[in-house]
Write the structure tokens for this entry.
Amino acid sequence: MRPQMGLQGSTHAAVLDHDAYFGRPGRVVARDAITEGVYLPGDKLTERELCERFAASRPSVREAIRQLDGEGLLEVAPHRGPAVRAIDEAQFLELHEVRVALQKLAAACFAMRGPAEQMDAFSDRIDEFELALASRDVARIRATKHQLFEAFIAGARNEPLAAFIRKINARLGFLWASSMNHPNRPAESVDEFHRLLGAIRERDPEAAQAAIVLQNQRARAVGLHALELFQKRRRASS
């Protein structure tokens, strides 16, 4: 039976799993911590806190901050230090529009030229994501969702396209946990991935693109709601 309810937890987007970050390069650690919602838009980052929290060296953290600023994930103000870049409704809608276009292209490419073994890998990742949802383990869900998207974009066999999708997803990543809290959204998400997989296996690019559009229509509504709640919490705490 597929889970019908979202995840319960704090209003902070993600639970920190130290084991998931320990020993990884500073840039990767900092980037994943932002995209997975450990740090939320507006949160200030300090080299010392990042070093201590993730057991990373100061030079690697400093380089991570420089690169993430270049990717647009951070904003670095003079005399204030870096903070996770905030996003408003207009920016969300613009990013979402680009995300849909890129994912539609990836879906069509996957359907037209993705190898059968990549389809099998995508199917396996969907099953793992469904099991993770049933476990209600936030760290496991986060990891399997990431692996699921990686399997999808890998099937398109277009690395520049994959890089653009990753960049857009990074800007919208903090809304992930909120969407998983939305009633019925986890189960809907699994159904949407199965529909997408079916179209890809049929080698039907138009149906694959239609599945992406449906998935993102629902994600857009949930994302806007999550963004509104997030902004209200920010205003209340300021």
Notes: The chain has two domains: 18-84, 89-237. Strands lie at 74-77, 81-84. Residues 18-84 form a domain with the Arc Repressor Mutant, subunit A fold (CATH 1.10.10.10).
